[in-house]
Design goal:
About 45% of the residues lie in helices and about 15% in strands. By secondary structure, the protein is an alpha/beta fold. The protein has a single domain, classed as TIM Barrel (Alpha-Beta Barrel), CATH 3.20.20.70. The chain has an 8-stranded parallel β-barrel with strand order 4-5-6-7-8-9-10-11, surrounded by 8 helices. Strands 1-12 form a two-stranded antiparallel sheet. Strand 10, helix 11 and strand 11 form a beta-alpha-beta unit. Helix 2 packs across helix 13, helix 8 crosses helix 10 and helix 10 runs parallel beside helix 15. The chain is globular. The structure holds ligand FNR. The site of ligand FNR has 28 residues, from helix 1, strand 7 and helix 12.
Length: about 350
């Protein structure tokens, strides 16, 4: 199995398997505000992740590169990112680190969007030197390091040892001169893991929760004998965000995993995220309907986000992060078992009523 055909398999199977929608965000309800004192025209979507200023909390999350066919996807994603002004990450660049002739399939995203926020991407096996080369390849503003233990375990040709990842991430953080964001790919994040990552200098955590693109299902499709029970493995996006709540400071958490529109993006923000990553849903818009449709899908997500903000009395992303939400269902049961206090989310205010 070549790396090139694996990249193409991932795109094809991700589109075929789709998103389960069971990201836990259905368990989260906003407390409506009948006196929100907001105006749609005065709502700001600007936000910050670490030291990076973002025009919008929406991020096109890491997907692809490493084959001629994927250059077309990265170009489309890059053009839509430029049109809409959202940040974008390319997929894992290890293919081009091993074979520099593939660098163009990633760099095309920078050419399509010369002034935008663009994130490089590698796995935690990378060396600091590989990190620097990935950043240089696309003139990246930040470097994402992905954690994907379950994907590797299910992948027929995947890694089998995961020792020493935190130490390697610390060396990458010290060895590159851009912020490092650590992300899961859809199996979720715990508060403890997030705290340990921040303690070695990681700038932001992308929780990468379960409930969207499912890399166990994708790799199982590529196996002769599937390990089906890994398909249900992990912490949902809602659970992951709540796990991180007590450990990750404001402005350092990204919500992702099955985000398909503005309401889900708003709920992820209300659970603590300063930005929201979307991958599978945007890939589908691009592949099925083209760059303009993708740009429209991003704008529609932002429009919906503004509607939620108007209804809950939040004028900024930071205020939305403090909007009251009631958490029920399996997510509440998870939090009770894990000792995560959720009543404070229901009893707070987006902004003090005296304002
Ligand atoms: C991904 N994802 C991913 N992540 C990463 O860090 N490096 C990578 O190379 C890839 N490759 C990749 C390929 C394809 C086709 C998809 C759809 C996704 C994972 C992605 O960034 C994200 O974490 C998950 O897909 C969960 O988000 P969604 O898809 O549920 O919004």
């Amino acid at each position: 199995m070549t790396r090139r055909s694996r990249k193409l398999d991932h795109v094809r199977i991700a589109l075929a398997t789709g998103q389960s929608g069971r990201n836990g965000l259905d368990d989260v309800r906003f407390v409506h505000n009948p006196l929100p004192d907001t105006s749609l025209s005065h709502i700001s979507l600007t936000t910050r992740i670490g030291d990076l200023d973002m025009r919008s909390p929406i991020l096109i999350n890491a997907m692809t590169g490493g084959a001629a066919e994927t250059a077309e996807i990265n170009e489309g994603l890059g053009r839509a990112a430029r049109e809409t002004g959202v940040a974008m990450a390319v997929g894992s660049q290890m293919a081009a680190i091993r074979d520099p002739s593939l660098a163009g399939s990633y760099a095309v995203a920078r050419r399509a969007n010369p002034d935008g926020l663009l994130f490089a991407n590698l796995g935690s096996e990378a060396t600091p030197e590989q990190g620097r080369r990935a950043v240089e390849m696309i003139e990246a503003n930040a470097l994402q390091i992905h954690l994907n233990v379950v994907q590797e375990l299910v992948m027929p040709e995947g890694d089998r040892s995961f020792e020493g990842a935190l130490g390697r991430i610390e060396r990458i953080v010290r060895g590159v001169d851009v912020p490092v964001i650590v992300k899961e790919v859809g199996f979720g994040m715990t508060g403890d893991a997030a705290a340990r990552l921040l303690s070695v200098g990681v700038s932001a955590i992308d929780c990468g929760g379960k409930g969207g693109t499912n890399f166990s299902r994708i790799e199982n499709e590529r196996r002769e004998r599937p390990i089906a029970w890994f398909d249900e493995w992990g912490l949902s996006t809602a659970e992951s965000l709540l796990e991180c709540g007590a450990h990750v400071p404001a402005g350092r958490l990204i919500g992702s995993g099955g985000i398909r529109g503005g309401l889900e993006a708003a709920k992820a923000i209300a659970l603590g995220a300063a930005a929201v990553g979307m991958a599978g849903a945007l890939l589908r818009a691009l592949r099925e309907s083209g760059v303009e449709a993708l740009a429209d899908a991003i704008r529609e997500t932002e429009r919906e986000l503004r509607l939620v903000m108007a209804a809950v009395g939040a004028r900024t992303v930071d205020e939305l992060r403090r909007a009251p939400v009631v958490i029920g269902g399996e997510t509440a049961a998870w939090c009770a078992a894990r000792g995560i206090e959720i009543s404070k989310y229901a009893r707070r205010e987006a902004r003090p009523t005296s304002e």
